[in-house]
Amino acid sequence: MQIGFLGLGNMGAPMALNLLKAGHQLTVFDLVPAAVERLVDAGARAAASPAELAAGEVELIITMLPAAPHVKQVYLGEAGLLAHVRPGVLLVDSSTIDPISAREVAAKAEAQGNPMLDAPVSGGTGGAAAGTLTFMVGGSATAFERARPILAAMGRNIVHCGAAGTGQAAKVANNLLLGISMIGTAEAMSLGVALGVDPKVLAGIINTSSGRCWSSDTYNPFPGVMDNVPAARGYSGGFGSDLMLKDLGLASEAARQVRQPLLLGALAQQLYQAFSLQGNGQLDFSAIIKLYRKEDCA
């Protein structure tokens, strides 16, 4: 299939590479020339702008952008996708944004004859590279079935959540829990170690007991407990703390709109806000454990 891919960052680039590996023909765009060059070297064609990408012979366009303002600009701007794309081209936005913005953009796309899905992902950069992402998809059942084979080239779990915006709603809820559970894991690990328990022993107990969670058994934040996680490399790479702060902000705003209390979510947001203000925003979100450990606070 002829696919356009816009947004080649830490998540978008490996996703696009997996589409090339699956045999699809790709036209790509990003504001960073080096990111585009990497995909061109792998067999993609470069577009000079979103407008050029949309005006081509693409049958489907995927976007992976930082936040709602970027999504609105890329889709709704005068030089954006909707102003130049042919009717019938399927649009898939895999950015993580608020459900209201997702529904707004989808409604305008549908009105001009372009079915659109919100399809945020979970699984991190490792899942993006391995092609094992989870896609949470909002939009019509017809558009979902049309996109499913393409999404399957980048992910393992492809879930239709319902109408437009529900993919983003599921993502917001998931990352709210992830942020809270990582803080809980950091707190529990730090307490146990401060009381004299070996961190690997403690993690092994938690991971086979009632405290088990993804933040502990797959992405443990305590240094030396696991290999191949950010805690093993100074919290570099992975999912940045500022990105977690952004997602907690999305959850907070979405909760405000539906008058849903977020007691732990509000506290988690404040902890990540404080952590970011200390200059740690680019560190992986598991580095939140630095708030608890004397060695890291010294």
Can you offer a commentary on this structure?
By secondary structure, the chain is α/β, with parallel strands linked by helices. The chain is 49% helix and 13% strand. The protein is built from 13 helices and nine strands. The strands form two sheets. It has a six-stranded parallel beta sheet, sandwiched between helices. A three-stranded mixed beta sheet has the order 7-8-9. α8 crosses α11. The protein is globular, with a radius of gyration of 20 Å.
Q: Overall 3D geometry?
A: globular
Number of strands: 9
Class based on secondary structure composition and strand pairing: alpha/beta
Strand content: 5-15%
Q: Give the spatial strand order of the biggest sheet.
A: 3-2-1-4-5-6
Number of helix segments? 13
Please state the CA-atom Rg, rounded to the nearest Å. Answer: 20 Å
The biggest beta sheet reads:
6 strands, parallel
**Chain-averaged pLDDT:** 95
The helix/strand series, from N terminus to C terminus, equals: EHEHEHEHEHEEHEHEHHHHHH
Q: Poorly predicted ranges (pLDDT <50, ≥5 residues)?
A: none
Q: What proportion of the residues is helical, as a percent range?
A: 40-55%
**What is the straight-line distance between the termini?**
54 Å
